[in-house]
Amino acid sequence: MTRRTFAALLVTALAVAALPGAASAATIPVRVRILKGSRQGPAAVDPRLADLQHQLGKLAYVKWDQVGERQADMDFNKPLSVALPDGASLELTLVDSRKDTVTFDVRVAARKTHSRLTIAKDQRIVHQVGGEKDGSAYFASIRPWP
Amino acid sequence: MTSDLCLRWAPMIGARPGELTPEEEHGLAEHLAGCDGCVARLADETALSGMLSQALLDEANRRDFATFSDGVLARIPERAWGGAPGSASAGHGQGGFLGWFRRHRAAAVAAVLAPALAALAAVLYVGQDHHDVPEAAYVEVTSEMGGATVLDTKDGPVVLLGEGEPEGT
Hints:
The structure holds two protein chains of two kinds. Chain A is of the alpha+beta class.
């Protein structure tokens, strides 16, 4: 056993230990869609929302339309503001990302609501962002790595 | 002259200490006191025993063990004990800590690799983020305008604010 071999082993161990941290990307692409759900009307789901059908099907709203969309490469701890049809805004912050999960902060100032959600990388968040009015309400769908 | 008593006691002549019971020793002594033949046998036995031990000792003395240790050392490979005292290989190169490593390369490599591999395994295990379980979505909602409802689905959480009321819940 030489000093050189020992040094090589030590460097390898340090490199392996540093791998998980190096795997974290500086930015994460995020797709935000604004949805409108209605209790009235014929049951229908916007074809663009087909990937959300399982989550939307849990709700009492029967008609779903996509009314807005925004895609951005989000930096950590830098809020992304998304305008809502009712004049309010949704503030989305990427808080943390690990091997299989990502954590978002969702703030709706008009509703004085703050949520912190940790999801798997292949999941998406459906979050109500406005109160119900005339049987309709706005939602936001948040999906990392769309 | 040989009598029946001689036939009984003669086999006990020359017995080693402890081989005879006290009664047998006493009986033998009484017989020897009155039997010249058995006394003569005892003298022969004693002489023979002394001659045998002396013969063995003489045989041993004829062997010369003076070179025995030299012969043993000559059969041991030089590298196993660092060379003869005063020889060139018995100096700084072969002796000491490094010399031991050179003579036991396999053991030295194993002794260093075992803890290194254990440390590497520990680093790999700790490096894995065991908290990243996809199913364990964590949701924390605070709202100053009414309560919130969180539905956990396999595709992700659904957060309802206030009056939102899902079917079947």
